[in-house]
Amino acid sequence: MLSVIEVKCPHCGAQGQIMMPPLGAIIIGPCPQCHGLVVIFCGRVLPLDGDIMQHGATRERREHLMSVLTRFLEQNVAQIIDSLSAELNKISQSAGPPATEPAQSETAGDLSDAAPSIPDTEVERFLQQELPMLDDKNYFRAIFG
Question: For the chain, is the Cβ count within 10 Å smaller at the N or the C terminus?
């Protein structure tokens, strides 16, 4: 299912909707209403200096973009980490209590004697059958929706 997010131009306040870009994507483009340049990153619309981005030297454009993204990350890193921690806590709580560590006598043996967490047959089937199919977009969509 495709996610749609609400966006607002930081230059003119025009509002609209776009499909959520892939995680980590950096999209640069003009506002459809005022034509001011913006960058969409992590679901947020950030203003760009159109003069620098259109007429600046490559180094100036790169530095300006890095400055805008760095400022955003500095302002939001705590919130991002808090959200990530909350998600990880949900996952760990739904997985049940953590496994207890084995007694010292149980760990003294050769590690190669330990049972694998995934059977070798399952790993082999994945490597031979499923892994090559991940490049097939229809298979990928069927599995990961």
Answer: N
